Amino acid sequence: MAKIRLTMAQALVKALAAQKTVIDGQTLPLFAGVWAIFGHGNVAGLGEALHGARDGLPTYRAHNEQAMAHAAIAFAKASRRRRMMAVTSSIGPGATNMVTAAAVAHVNRLPLLLLPGDVFAGRRPDPVLQQIEDFGDGTVSANDCFKPVSRYFDRLTRPEQLIPAFERAMAVLTDPAECGPVTLALCQDVQAEAFDYPEAFFAERIWTPRRQRPDEAELAEAAVLLKAAEKPFVVVGGGVLYGEAEAELARFCEAHGLPAAETQAGKSALPFDHPLNLGAIGVTGTGAANAMAEEADVVLAIGTRLQDFTTGSWSLFSNPACRIIGLNVQAFDAGKQRARPLVCDARAGLAELDAALAGHRAPETWTAQAKSARTDWLTTAAHYTAAGNAALPSDAQVLGAVQRWSEPSDVVVCAAGGLPGELHKLWQAGAPGGYHMEYGYSCMGYEIAGGLGVKMADPAREVVVMLGDGSYLMMNSEIATSVMLGLKLTIVVLDNRGFGCINRLQGATGGAPFNNLLADSRHETLPAIDFAAHAASLGAVSRKVASLAELDEALRESRAHDRTSVVVIDTDPMISTDAGGHWWDVAVPEISTRAEVAQARQRYDDALKARP
Questions:
Q1: How much is the pTM?
Q2: Per its UniProt entry, which superkingdom is the organism in (predicted)?
Q3: Contact predicate 47/40, CB 8 Å
C-alpha cells in the first residue's frame, strides 16, 4: 500500500480538499473553505498546513470565533446542506467562543466542522496557556464543552487517529438524518506529528445526498389517513428545502387541494403567491394558517422539528380528532407527539405519497375555505406594512419598506428579537432560500455573520440583513470582514433603544419594565449610540434616516453601492403586529406582590386548562 508522510494537520487539510460534491452537473469542493482565527493552539500546526493548501482550500480570516462559525452555518444552510465549511480556533477562549455556534448548528441540523486546538496530548508542558484544569479528571479540556452540542466529538491524541475520526466525521456531516456539528479537537502537539498515511485516504470522494424512500407500511398508513381526512393540512419545515423538494411540494398541494403553512425554517419552500400557501404557522403565524390548523383533522408535517413556536406549545392543533403524520428523514422528529412516522427524504416521500393519493383531493369546501382565509390575511397584513406618518415607525412598517424595495431574488436574513415574528407573518419571499431565518436557536448576533455566509454561498443574490440594535451591539465585527472580502451586504438596523421584544413579553407576563430597554436599566447616563458612525468606522457605507421616506431613498442608493451598506432607523419598541399569532407557553410566577403578575397568572392558568 502506497503511503505519504505528513503531519496530522497536513493530512487533515489534504483530506478536506479531496471531498467533492456534484451540483447541477458541476463538481465542486464539498468544503468551500476554512474560517480561521489563529492562536498558539492551531497556528503552528494547522496554520502551516492551511497555508500550503491555500489555493485549493481557501482560508478566511474573521474577527470573532463565534461569528465565523455562524458564517459557516449560514453558508451550509444557504447551500441546502450540499456544501459546508470548517472552522478552526486556538485552545481556550477561541474554542469556547464557538460553543454557542455549535448549538446553533445542532438545533438546526446543519453541517459544521469545528477544529479547535487542544492541550498537549503528551502533557509535557501542562498546564499550557489557556488550559482548563479539572481537579479530578486529567483528560478534560475546555473542548469537552462541545460534547453536548456536537453530533460527533473526537479528540485526536495520536496522528493515526485522524483516519477513523475523519471517516466518522464525514459520515455524520453528510447524513440527512444525523447531520449536525462535528468537533475534532486537535491536540496541538499531535497536529505537528508526522505519520505515514495511506494514499487512499486522500482519494477524491464525491458525496451526493442520500434520498431514503418511505417504508411501504408507513406510506400506506399515511395515504389512508389523508384519504379519510375531511380537513387535511400541511406544515412545511426546513427539510423541504434541504431535500430540494419545493417543486414536488407545490405540485402535491395543487394536485390534492391541500392548504399549507410554513415554519420559520420552511418559509420560501412554497411560492408566496401559491393559492394554498397560508403563510406562517404558530406563535408567529398568520390568522389564516392558524385558523385552518385549529380545525385540521390530519396534519402532514414535512421536515419539521415541531418546536413550540410551530405548535403553539402544542395547543394549536386543537381538533380532538387531529392526527399527525411526521414525514422526516430523522425518526426522532417523525414520531413526536405520537405522530404516525413516515421516515424518508422529503422529495422521495412526497413523490411516493403523491402516487399513493392519485386522483384524491381534499373536500372542495375545505380548499375553498383556505383560499378565502389567505385572501383575508393578505388584506390584513397589508395594513400593518403600509407606510405611516408616526414619528417612530413600527418594525412592520420598516419591513414593508424593505419589502417594496426588494426584488424576488433577494435574501432576507434575521435571527432574534421581535423581527422574526414580524418577518414570519408578513415577509413575502420571492424565491426558494429567499427567507433565511435562524430561529431554531434564535441566536442574537447571528444576523450579520449569517448574512456573510449566505452571500458566500450565493454571491449573485442581494443579501439583506435585518436586525435590532441589541443584536448589532452583540456582534457586528463581521461588517469589517464583509468589506475585506468584497462581499456586499445591505444591513438595516432598527434601533428601539433596548431589547424591545423581551420588554413586551415582560409586560405581557405582568412584569414591570425592567432591565430590557436602556431607559429601564440601571444607568447614570443613557448611551447615545451612533450606529451609522460605528458602521462607517468598520468600512461600510452608512446612513441614519429619520423617516420611512428617507429609508426608501437609502435602500435605493444601497443597491448601487459596491460594498456593505448599513441603514439605521429609529423604531417604536412598544408596537408589534397584533393580528395573527397564537398562545405561547411562558410560565408566569404563581406568587407575586404585583397585581399585574397575579392577573397574568390567572390568564396563564386559564390557557393551560384550555389546551387540548
A1: 0.97
A2: Bacteria
A3: no
